[in-house]
């Protein structure tokens, strides 16, 4: 059996606060026998304080941005120390080797290894003014299984999860700082339309690709953003095995990865029955004709 966990928690610019939350979550995970823990997007240093035309931008002020962290820097090393033998996915603002370029990134690590780093590919609502975009999706072998990473808005793009499933991912961890709607926000955030979309994407991507899906998310508030929590573990049949709903906490599920794959993939063959010969337009650089059709 493998024990999977996804966390919902609040992270800010205060690194000491972040490390305290990470320590509490990794300690709880160890106490509960967790093998792989997914922490939210921007768990080191917090996310942007707002999005859209009024969001943080490098041109406006670098003081409002998350601290830029090198993958070989002391911040990641401290998380590794807290992780110990626990495999952890964690979001942060990565500083590239040129000392200037920033990426909204996630690291997959334990106390002895950094198994991989993912740089967010799909950027929403002006996020590109603060971060450069990544350009690839990888799958990494870890003691907890073959794991792929994506961040927040990526979950709205089926291709992002599919390419990792085809690469042999057993588990995809989706790390988010997913807020409630900015207008006409529901009084109960669990009923908010953006909460609904967050949850539906998680179920669909797990079922589309017949993988275990871990959705970690921020909770509480930061700047103008109200996060919707709803960290969860979803199985390859699209069944939610555990969820935090709106609150902070940890969704934990014990799973038999190999047996579940044998069972779930014995009757539905979503990967085998693909038709790549008719998918050509999906990867055409010029999507204008398809955009025209969408508005016809």
TrEMBL record:
<protein>
    <submittedName>
        <fullName>Apolipoprotein N-acyltransferase</fullName>
    </submittedName>
</protein>
<dbReference type="GO" id="GO:0016746">
    <property type="term" value="F:acyltransferase activity"/>
</dbReference>
<keyword id="KW-0449">Lipoprotein</keyword>
<keyword id="KW-0808">Transferase</keyword>
<dbReference type="InterPro" id="IPR003010">
    <property type="entry name" value="C-N_Hydrolase"/>
</dbReference>
<dbReference type="InterPro" id="IPR036526">
    <property type="entry name" value="C-N_Hydrolase_sf"/>
</dbReference>
<dbReference type="GO" id="GO:0016811">
    <property type="term" value="F:hydrolase activity, acting on carbon-nitrogen (but not peptide) bonds, in linear amides"/>
</dbReference>
<dbReference type="InterPro" id="IPR050345">
    <property type="entry name" value="Aliph_Amidase/BUP"/>
</dbReference>
<dbReference type="Pfam" id="PF00795">
    <property type="entry name" value="CN_hydrolase"/>
</dbReference>
<keyword id="KW-0012">Acyltransferase</keyword>
